[in-house]
Structure formats: structure tokens, C-alpha cells
Design a protein that fits this description.
The chain is of the alpha/beta class. The protein contains 15 helices and eleven strands. The chain has a single domain, classed as TIM Barrel (Alpha-Beta Barrel). The chain is 45% helix and 12% strand. It binds 5'-deoxyadenosine, iron/sulfur cluster (SF4) and FE2/S2 (inorganic) cluster. The site of FE2/S2 (inorganic) cluster (FES) has 7 residues, from helix 14.
Amino acid sequence: MNDEQFRDILYRQDLDRELIKVLLAAEGSQMEMLLRRALEVKLEHMDNYVHLRGLIEYGNVCEKNCLYCGLRRGNGKVARYCLSDDEVLSCARLAHDLGYGSVALQSGERSDPEFIAKIEYLVREIKKIDGGSLGITLSLGEQTEDTYCRWFDAGAHRYLLRIESSDEELYYRIHPRDAKHSFRTRVDCLEALKRTGYQTGTGVMVGLPSQTLDHLAGDLLFFRDMDVAMVGLGPYIPHPDTPLYRFKGAIPSAKERMDMTLKMIAVLRLMMPEINMVAATANQTIDPQGREKAIQAGANVIMPNLTPGEYRESYFIYPDKACVKDMPDHCQTCLDIRLAAIGHRIQYNAWGDSPAFTKKTKK
Ligand code: 5AD
Ligand code: SF4
Ligand code: FES
């Protein structure tokens, strides 16, 4: 395909599976054209702001056994922890003091009543800081609709639940095939989150064993069909203490996974110009400039880690996580500088909701 034909696709309104695959296959100068166009679309629709979510990794106890994740129940090497109320609330206060505008509370999946009640309590307490000035994103896995409602009523308004892969067969190649890891339930949870009123986000890993361009194109169509308000996607990073690690020789190289992640972000920005898209920390793990590259390819959200230093090394979803030894104020200065260098600026003291969602709820 010559450059002119390729450029035409970049301006098409309704990208279908075949065109999406053409874009995802782009290399060299055509890949550059794609990324540049995505940046242009982002700037047109949402300016050069980056929104921050101060990430609080509440605990690493997990009931599940996802085949790729270091926190899986079956991994006996992890020292399990759970933050105290004080620790969570001082992280949230720190986020507020640093002007982050929002926090994201994340943990391994738990469904015990104590956990559900605790989260409800913590959300209410975080909401008390400065009269509810902090936005709250939850990323706490699959729960009942009733639980989602309780947390929403307590004050959370965004929820991130990655589908991991929208292809059912691939989903079951990276999860145990049992009732606890049901693809159907995961999709149902996303529907329940939307019904509850959350700005709902999902996402996938890029570069999984046996993942094809067709799978990835399907993922992007899934995001569009679900009409989600946010997406977080990032490269898959093999973790040595997980079953999927044995396929590590059969996945694309780190550079290929990074490039494919950037193309996924860029194509999605063309398809959904006004959603929030996270520049995942995993990007930075495989490329020191990974997060900035994701921002330049169309992402507009960064989640700086606020988890107290002593616990960070226990939240090893994947190896070599970025900023593990950096303190929050260091990350803030670092981010200001890194983003200014690529013509972006942080929007401080704002929730940073996606225009896609705000418009929908105003209708
Ligand atoms: N590599 C990259 N991302 C991973 N996640 C879990 N394990 C890995 C891994 N090995 C992501 C999943 C999950 C999120 C919490 O972390 O997408 O949703
Ligand atoms: Fe648990 Fe989430 Fe890791 Fe799966 S991906 S094992 S649910 S922390
Ligand atoms: Fe954490 Fe740069 S963002 S040190």
C-alpha cells in the first residue's frame, strides 16, 4: 500500500476490522504517520493535558489464578500485604496535596464481606478529604452488581476492569478454565459497571502468546462496541513465577510489543477520540521512554504510584516495574519535566473525566 492510500485510511470515520488490521500492521514511516495522526486527533479533541491518578496498591492478596500475573493465588513466593486505613488515607491526602486530582485504588481480587465493607469505608473517608475534591477510580476486579453499587454510592465514580483479551478462546489460554475465571462473567461485570453509572474502563495486554493481529483488531472493536469511557492497555511482560512464562520464547520482542502497544493506542484514538487512555506503567518497564511514547501516540492519563515504598516490591504483577524506588514527590517533578519535553502539561487539581463520558451523561 502506498503512503497516499494509507493516509486516506487515517481519515476514515468508520474503521472496520480489515482497515484496523492494515493500520496495526503499519511499519516504518507509515507507523509514524499513524502515530502523528493520532496525536493530532487527541490534541484537537482534548488539548495537550495529561491527567493524573495517584495509584494506591491497596493489597496483593488475590483469589484468582490468572496464568500471567505475579500476584496469582498459586504464587507462593509473594509476601502478601494489605495497607492499613491510615496508610491508604495518607496516600490519598498526599495525592490531594500534590494536586493530582484523583486517586486509583487497586488490589488483587477479593470478594469477602470484610473487604467489600472496608473499601466502602475507605472510599467514604477519601471523599471527606477537602470536601470531596478527589476523584476516585477503583480497580478491584469482578464483584457483584450490589457491591459495585455500594462502592459507587460511597463516592467512587470510575472503574477499570480489563477484559485482558476480548477473544474468548485466547482468554481461556491465559486464564484457568473454571468458574472463577469465566469470560462471560467478566463481560457481565463490565455491563453491570456501566449500568451502575461508573465511567467504565477496560483494556488488554499486547503481545500475549499466540495473540494475532486479528485478536488485537477484535479488542479495539470490543472497546468501541462496549462504548467504554476509558481504556488501559499495555505490553504483556512475562513473569518468571507464572505458568505463562514458559511461552516467553514464543512472544514478540520487547520492541515489537512496545510498537504494537503504541499502534493500538493510536488506532483507538482515531476510533474513539474522546475517551481517556492510560499510558500504562508497563510501557516504561520495557522502554525507558515508554510512557512518553504512549502519550505521544494518543494516551492522556498517567498513574503515578503512591503506594508506600516498603510495599511496592510486593506488588510485582510483572517484573521490573518502573518507579519502584522513587518517592511520590520525585515522580511529580520527573513527570512535569518529561511531559513538558514532549509538549504536554499536567492538569492539576481536576478529576479529568473523559469528554466522551461527560457528554453522554449530559445528554
Ligand atoms: N504483564 C503485563 N500486564 C500484566 N497484568 C497482569 N499481569 C501482567 C503481566 N505479566 C495486568 C493485567 C491486569 C492488571 C492489573 O495488570 O492486565 O488487569
Ligand atoms: Fe489477581 Fe488481577 Fe493478577 Fe488476576 S490479574 S491474578 S485477578 S491481581
Ligand atoms: Fe516516577 Fe519518573 S515518574 S520517577
